[in-house]
Amino acid sequence: MESDSISASAEDKRPLKLLGEFEFTPQNIKPLGGLNQYSPSFNTIGLQYKNLLIEHARLTPKSSILDIGCGTGRLAHSLKDFIEPKKYVGLDNNARYLTMARQLNPLYQFDHIDVQHDEYNPGGTLDPNIVELPYSNKSFDVVCVLGLFNHFRAKWVANYIRQAARVLKPKGIFFGTFILLNRSSMEHIESGNSKKPFAFNNREGDGWYESHSRPLLNVALPELPIRRVFIKSNLMIKEPIRYGQWCKSPIAITGHDIVLARKGGWL
């Protein structure tokens, strides 16, 4: 996503506040990860993803859509004259952001899930490794995850992909953004040729991180294990993955890497 990442490429430049504590006011028009309703990027990025969902995820006015990590309601706002009110559900672990989303989009449903996250919800009571999404099996035509997985550890991403597959209807479509590590993107990072601020100088465990002290500010994860999770979850990826502008991909259509997958395959 064009403004989904908040950099911590230099430790002395990392945000003083947690990601979930940023304030949004008419006097502050910085994108702040694309969450700021007062920033022009809020509408620009929202409309961008609306169009991508229509084109690639077969979103229609009657599609039921789950927006995981909906934040302050950017995607919902872009869909307000397109998706029927009862067809959209937003889910997030930051209660303050959800209050903003509801105020901006009063006709849509926004649900709170108290998942622990060092940046967005430090006091959360639910474990992201094992949490179940609060929806029935086969409930949605489309599940989208925008600008969330670049703040997740690999095991959390795997659980959320499995949960997305569970709540998708047969032939339902998953649309998600990632920062994926493969041979090409790692070469770009190591040569200093990735689009700033994607430095990922801290490499440990299951990912590469921008900040050692606050690893969840921005995370890049190995592509191959994530592909395996999609296969095991009966989600077939539509090739090619649209690698993003962050690694200077020639097929980029947005800042982050886009994975499009369909439950049960594309035939």
Low-confidence stretches: 7-12
Cα-atom radius of gyration: 17 Å
CATH architecture: 3-Layer(aba) Sandwich
Order of helices and strands: HEHEHEEHEEHEEEHEE
Strand content: 15-25%
How would you describe what is shown here?
There is one protein chain. The protein is built from six helices and eleven strands. Helix content is 24%, strand content 19%. The two termini are 29 Å apart. The protein has one domain (11-263): Rossmann fold (3-Layer(aba) Sandwich). The protein has 267 residues and is α/β, with parallel strands linked by helices. The chain has a seven-stranded mixed β-sheet with strand order 3-2-1-4-5-11-10, with helices on both faces. It has a four-stranded mixed β-sheet with strand order 6-9-8-7. Residues 7-12 have low confidence and may be disordered. Helix 2 (74-79) links the parallel strand 1 (65-68) and strand 2 (88-92).
Secondary-structure topology with pairs:
Layout: H1 40-56, E1 65-68, H2 74-79, E2 88-92, H3 95-104, E3 109-112, E4 140-145, H4 154-167, E5 168-178, E6 180-181, H5 183-190, E7 202-204, E8 207-209, E9 219-222, H6 223-232, E10 235-237, E11 257-263
Helix pairs in contact: 4-6
